[in-house]
Each structure stands twice: as C-alpha cells, then as structure tokens.
Amino acid sequence: MIQIRTQKVIQAPRWKVLRLITSVKDFPRYMPNVKQCTVLEKKSRSALTSWEVEVDKMVFKWKQHDELDIPNFTVRFELVSGDLEHFKGQWVLREHDGGTEVTVEAAVKMGIPMLEEVIGKVISEKLRKNFDLMLDALGDRLTLMRYKNIRNRNLSRIKGFAVIGHPYNLQHLIRYFKYFKPDFELPSQEFLMKVFELAPAYRAQTLEHFKSITGREVHGYFIMCPIIPVALILSPDRVIEKVIQACKVAEQLGAGIATLGGFTSIAGEQFGRMLTTQVHVPITTGNTFTVAMVIEGIEKAARLMELDLAKAHVTVIGGTGDIGSACARILAERVEEITITSRSEKNLSEAERVLSYYGKAQIRTSRDNNEAVKNADVVIAAASSTSSIVDIQCIKPGAIVCDVGYPKNISYTTCDRNDILIFSGGTCALPSEFDTGFDIGLPSSRVLYGCFAEAILLELEERYENFSWGKGNITPDRVTLIRDIGKKHGFTVAPFFWGGRMVPDAEIESTLKAKDRMLKQGKGASS
C-alpha cells in the first residue's frame, strides 16, 4: 500500500473551503486536471461520485463513496470501482492563521501483478500531483471569489497594499544579504545568482502604521521577487513566473492592490495578458504617479536652474516606453522641442506620429542617445537598461538630467561634471516612514519610488483597480488625478538626490554658477 499526503494553506474560512470541496460537480469548471465528476447518488451526509482525472497525459477513472463529517470538517472517500484496486483517504480542514490548512491523505494500491513494484511509486506520484493541482485550483477559486467582492465594495477580507520589488543589480543583492548577516562570506557569483533564482517570491517585510496627513492609516507588505534585471533579458519566461508568484503572495496576504516595481513592471508590460489571466489582485505599475513626480521634479529644477521651460529643448531617452512616452506627451504642450530616442526605428515612427497630435512642440527622433542630448536643456533618462545609455560628457552645460529608469543608469555613475544638475527622478517625499528593513537604493525612509507610492495612495483611497496598466494609457488627466491624491495625503516631489546622497541647495547654486562660467567661456558639452 502506498501512502500519499499533501497539504496547503488556503486564505479562507473553513466553512467556505468545505462548501467548495463538497461541490464536486463544479470541479471540471475550474480544475483543468478534472475532466469529469458526476454525482450518481446523494444523501444528506454521503454521496456516490464518478471521476475522470488526467495528470501528465495519464487518465484515471473510478467511482467512490464520499462521507461528510461536518463537526470535524472532514470528507472521507473510498473506492467503489475503477482503475485502482484500493484508493481510500480523507480531506481534513484545520484552522490556520486566519485561513484553512487543507490536508489530503490517501492509501493507494494498483493491484496489477509484477508492475506494482516497478511503477507503483510513479503512479502514487501522479496521484499526489493530482491532489496538489486540486488544492491549487481550490485556493485560486476562493481567491477569485474574494476579489470579485471588490466590485460590490465588500472589503472585509481585502486590505493593504503590496509592493513587489527586487535587487537592481548583483551588488545590491549582496548588500541585501549582508544587511541580515554582516559577516556573510560570499560564494561564487554564479552560485549566488542560481540560488536566488531558485527561491520563490516571498514576503520580506510587513509595513505597518503608514499614516497620511489626513490621519488615515494603512498597512502593506514588501514582497521580494527573486530576480535581478539581467534575468529579464536572459529568461523572460522565468521572470514572469516569478512575478506571478509574487502577485499570488499578495493575494494570500489579502492585499487590495499590488504594484510592480522596477523590472517587474516591464515584465508586466511584455506579458500583460498572461499576468491578468492568472492573477486576481488588482495590479498597477505605478507609472502614472512616477510620471507626475518626474514632471514636478523637472519644473522644480527649471526654477532653480533659471530655465524657461517654454523655450526648452527636451530629450527623452527611452521615449517610446510607458514612462518616457507619457512624459513626452505631457511636455509636448509646454516646451519648444522634444527629441525621443529608441533602439527601434518602427517604435520611433509610431511614437512620433502619436506625439504630433499633442501640443506645440517640434518632434524629433533619434537612435543615437549621445547625439540626441548634445543640445538638450532637459534630459529625461527613462530607458530601463543594465548598461550605459549615454556618455555624460555629451550633455551640454546647464542641462537638467532627470534619471527615472530602473536601475538608475546615470545618477549612480561617477561624474566630474559640476555644471549640470543630475537627480533621481520619479520619487516622492512621504508623510510617514516607509521602512523595508534594508537598503532599496534611496537616501531616506521618507523618500520612495513613485511606483511604490502609487500603491499606497490607491490603498489610502480604497481604489482597488488597475490604475496604471497597459502601455500608452497614461493620460494627462490621470497624472493630474493621482498627483492631486498625492497632495491630499502629503506626498510631494522628493528633494533632489544623486546616487545615495541628497543634493543641497548650495550645490545647485554652485552648479548654476559653473554653468554660467562655462557658457561665458564658450565651452560646449564636448569640450
């Protein structure tokens, strides 16, 4: 006799799980491995059921007697006839941290002479996998039912925001490990990355008591998605699998909104349909609030650097991406000229066509980042790249450089230019501490990425919706809306910082003076 045992914690009360388990006739609707399940006879506490289940292209058929033990939240089953000689077990439901721990136990015997010893374990493994698939489907079904209630404003089991993030490079990953173990001795880089890749997404931190200036208080979770940006290029399928895992963690925690930070949002853009069909929690990329903070940051920088935006030439590196194109559309109404760059001529042509309908700005395109920035008064670096995207020496004196890509490509490089203002853009100052428990590449726990902040704002407003979702859907009206929500709760554009340090006002004044000196001396960016 072969023994099978598997279990799963499902975030739902026992009575809901029991009701779903006993509705076996509905199993084929949402369990892909259950091809047929029919109730042949039914009494008050028992039933005779017929099953046809396919696992790894192997089909099992049988009839079984089911017995319901309501006081003990247990369903027992025993084979009546079918492909196996013996099949008997039970489903047991136990309370577990606000949810239900479902355990399935079964004893199996094939009854086929000689083959029992040869492939008996293979058959048992397929049956165990069958129960695993059924438990996953049950959990997913209950999650779907829970999130459907959002439409009816039934939010009793939906609360909190989930921020999904990841290290921005290998060095950041190492710092992450050393935060928890300062004397951590590094294995080889290849081994470290492989172990990290094997890890599932997990809750890294619970973020409690985040308070708005309105007095409203919310909580959330930081969920680690174990990828580093180069992985998106190397294995996009594996990355989207990790992103889905992270969203499932958010669902298990009952979060009302989840935001995809960093490269996970790029994965969401590339595999959006796959993500939305497998995930039930509302998802946002946070790009709309990021754009709002980019625009406010540029406006602030222009005032400090005495630049008239109405006469400015702006270059958007990565101008065909979601954030870059949205910035270009908004600024097209307010500046003299915009140059957008991309590696794809086709994407540039389409973006130029769309931008021609916005505002008064003259639109130019380029595939050469260095050439595109030479005459730019404002440079928005919105290309998420793991390698250098522009030679900083090509930027002209007095230029404003807003680095909004992730990982930060320009503002974390070594630079001896004191005649340009570079800052990490798309970030905001917070009314309350946001402490993930480790370094996430920001100078203060009162400063946060716009994509993360958008999830907090949506939670504060109980707007459980895909607010920023789908490339090209960021409109000026939506940017104004989320900006005003931010102001309502005390979220403002972050102080300028470059790398891991703040940029004081005195340094900006020095940059302005250096710009004036170089312009008087007639020196260009290439000198």
Main sheet summary: 7 strands, antiparallel
Tally of alpha and pi helices: 16
CATH topology of the largest domain: Rossmann fold
CATH architecture of the largest domain: 3-Layer(aba) Sandwich
- What does the average pLDDT come to? 88
**Shape verdict:** elongated
The radius of gyration is: 28 Å
Structural category? alpha/beta
Fourth-tier CATH superfamily name of the largest domain: NAD(P)-binding Rossmann-like Domain
CATH class of the largest domain: Alpha Beta
Number of domains: 3
List the helices and strands and how they pair.
Layout: E1 2-10, H1 14-21, H2 27-30, E2 34-42, E3 46-55, E4 58-69, E5 74-82, E6 86-96, E7 99-109, H3 115-148, E8 161-165, H4 170-180, H5 189-198, E9 202-211, E10 217-224, H6 230-234, H7 236-252, E11 257-260, H8 263-270, H9 272-278, E12 283-284, H10 287-304, E13 313-317, H11 322-331, E14 337-341, H12 345-355, E15 362-366, H13 369-373, E16 378-381, E17 400-403, E18 421-424, E19 427-429, E20 447-449, H14 450-460, H15 476-489, E21 492-493, E22 497-498, E23 501-502, H16 505-521
Parallel strand pairs: 8-10, 8-11, 11-12, 13-14, 13-16, 14-15, 16-17, 17-18
Antiparallel strand pairs: 1-7, 2-3, 3-4, 4-5, 5-6, 6-7, 9-10, 19-20, 19-21, 22-23
Helix pairs in contact: 10-11, 10-14, 10-15
